[in-house]
Amino acid sequence: QLSEYELKRLETIRENQAFLSSISLLEAREDLRQSKRPATRGLARWSSVSKELQPVRKSLRLQNKQAEVVPASQPTATQPRVPPMKSLNTEESKLPPRLLELSFESGGGAACAHTRLVVTMEVPSGHYVEDLKEDPKVAPDLERYRATLQTMKITEDRVAKVVTNRVYCAAFHPSGSSLLMTAGDTMGHVGLWGLSSDWGDDGVLLFKPHARCVSCVAFSRACPVQLLSGSYDGSLRCMDVEKAAFDEVYDFGDGLRTFDFMSHDCSTLVVGSVYGDVAIVDRRTPGSSHESLHSLHTNVLSCLHVHPVHKQYFLVAESRTVKIYDNRSLKSKSGPVSELQGHSLRVGSAYFSPSTGNRVLTSCGDDRIRIFDTSERTATPALLTSIRHNMHTGRWLSKISAVWDPKQEDCFVAGSMLRPRRLQVFHENGKEQHTFTDGENVGTVLPVTAFHPTRNALLGGNSSGRLHVFTD
């Protein structure tokens, strides 16, 4: 026979079980056990290449052995002192051969993937005639634009690991038939991801055309089977899918930071280095030399962008200022045409508005996004709007850069440090138009962003090499 205490204990247990059943806690626990993390798409997390095991280091002191004394070699006149970083990274800093085969770093069925990639990137003749004219487009009104942004969502299959390391730059292929994206990382890799493709690793193909960080990527609008990429190793390469090769377009030697097209047929480029040198390159000229080389006498060059209508003008983000130059007067060294002032720290990026170039959008380390009026060519364009935005990403994330939406002349997107993680779209007047967020599929900062030029699609890249795509 049970005691009074045991009977009370059993009664308490029954009451607790009844309470748990009433709130469905046990069912929630089972559902939690059965729930799985979203499957990782794209590249495998760990490299399949087996690394050579290094011998285990043992202490000579613990083994009662004398340490071997090696005298330090003194540099001579014929053997100057070499900086430690240079001596350690000699092999890594060497440039690849001038012409590289289009070898796939990942994914099986290279021949099949190459054939399908050519078909995807090819565009029927005349498809880009209107784009190449660069006529100003009629932007939809803000109400319709906000409604369009609200239809763009992200799902589990719209997140993929495209490169092995931190995404440093990314871009959309201009084709409107399918979504094809590219990303460059800090280790010289360039990845291609077809959202609805099954080639390679879940639609991802990986290449390594550079020895150091890929600083800038762009598809040729005149020849859509070509992808250009620049790197801090100094090389500017063109991936021609039809030729199945990476051809060297230009070699800066070291520190290539950015480039942009100066002609509608994408044959002429302006290339900038971090040291303030600007080269005008004509791809029709045999070899990989420049037409002209100019020094802007600046400490750091972080961004370069060509005017969308008047291609002779281009802007350069130089330390704490943004200057607009005229290509026709560079040889005379007459200086900049305009200078955008008011930045208290280094300017990370600057871009003309996509259709008319009447606005310039800058992102600065002083936690400000600024919009300047460049509709008239004045010495100091007026500041229209200044938006407070956290730019302190730290050393492990790429810098946040605000970029225009090519389909909407007066709106732009920027990554955010706020929680929950998000992408924010602003109007040039400073008002937020929409916030892209998703608790299940967006859990990291997305500092690298880009809008599709014709379709309703937006990408964001993070520090682990993943691209997140919002689309309708």
Automatic annotation (TrEMBL):
Record-level Gene Ontology MF annotations: DNA binding
Keyword presence, Repeat: yes
First and last residues of every WD repeat: 340-382
GO BP of this protein: regulation of DNA damage checkpoint
Keywords: Repeat, WD repeat
Superkingdom of origin: Eukaryota
Record GO cellular component, one term: nucleus
Disordered: annotated segments: 64-92
Assigned protein family: Belongs to the WD repeat DDB2/WDR76 family.
Protein function: Specifically binds 5-hydroxymethylcytosine (5hmC), suggesting that it acts as a specific reader of 5hmC.
Quaternary structure and partners: Interacts with CUL4A and/or CUL4B.
Designated name of the protein: WD repeat-containing protein 76
